[in-house]
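Whiteboard transcription, Tuesday session. T.W. wrote the structure tokens on the left side:
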């Protein structure tokens, strides 16, 4: 169970990035430029990908351990 918890952490961080992006929002400043925290979107995708890879590695590792016994 502890191994799956470590794979859950990147999913939580990715979700926090998405929520933070929506809470912060975007605005157009008086000179006409758009100000938004765009960096949070790719960061959330990156953390989701890391979580999926970690989950896959843990699942394969658990499967291989059960086959050896």
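and on the right, the sequence the group agreed on:
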């Amino acid at each position: 169970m502890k191994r799956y918890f470590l794979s859950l952490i990147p999913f939580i961080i990715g979700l926090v990035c998405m929520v933070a992006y929506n809470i912060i929002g975007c605005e157009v400043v008086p000179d006409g430029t758009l100000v938004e925290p765009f960096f949070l979107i790719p960061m959330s995708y990156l953390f989701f990908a890391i979580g999926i890879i970690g989950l896959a590695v843990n699942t394969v590792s658990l499967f291989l351990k059960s086959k050896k016994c």
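Someone added at the bottom: The chain has a mean pLDDT of 90.
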